[in-house]
Write a structure and sequence with these properties.
Elements lengths: L1 H29 L7 H7 L2 H25 L3 H27 L8 E5 L5 E4 L1 H19 L4
Antiparallel strand pairs: 1-2
Helix pairs in contact: 1-4, 3-4, 4-5
Length: about 150
């Protein structure tokens, strides 16, 4: 299980960087300043591009579900692997954006977390905190040999 967790973490980190790069390009294409909140990006997206963005988000979740399904043996493992990979993807997405464009400038910066089914808007500290707690919890459960 340790090897799977390490490889899934690596997968999540690589996926996060790829998505971060896409978001950097999207922000530049929309003419957004690097310091702007992603909440303002919703106002700049046309209905067509909002739909395209939603398909990108759906594709991201599908990739995370599929990799967890392929790697896990039981439904419990599949769920753990999904949450683990999701947490690494989410955490390193923000780290990637910060390395690339120094965004978000603070943990209080408001972000659009998801668009599906409706926009989820919250400060950046929230997904960072949830992802960090998820990684820590799964690591502790693994070390205690509960999972």
């Amino acid at each position: 299980m340790l090897l799977k967790l390490c490889l899934l973490a690596l997968f999540g980190i690589a996926m996060a960087h790829l998505e971060g790069v896409v978001v950097v390009y999207l922000r530049k294409a929309l003419g957004m300043l690097d310091s702007e909140s992603n909440k303002e990006s919703l106002e700049k997206l046309t209905r067509q591009y909002l739909g395209i963005e939603m398909t990108r988000e759906a594709a991201t979740i599908i990739m995370l579900v599929v990799i967890a399904y392929l790697v896990g043996d039981s439904w419990l493992e599949k769920g753990i692997y999904f949450l683990w990979t999701f947490a690494f993807w989410d955490l390193f997405y923000y780290l990637s954006l910060y390395i690339l464009i120094k965004w978000p400038p603070t943990f209080k910066t408001i972000d659009v977390l998801f668009l599906i089914p409706v926009p989820w808007i919250a400060p950046v500290w929230f997904p960072i905190g949830v992802s960090s707690l998820t990684i820590i919890t799964i690591a502790i459960l693994y070390l205690l040999q509960i999972i």
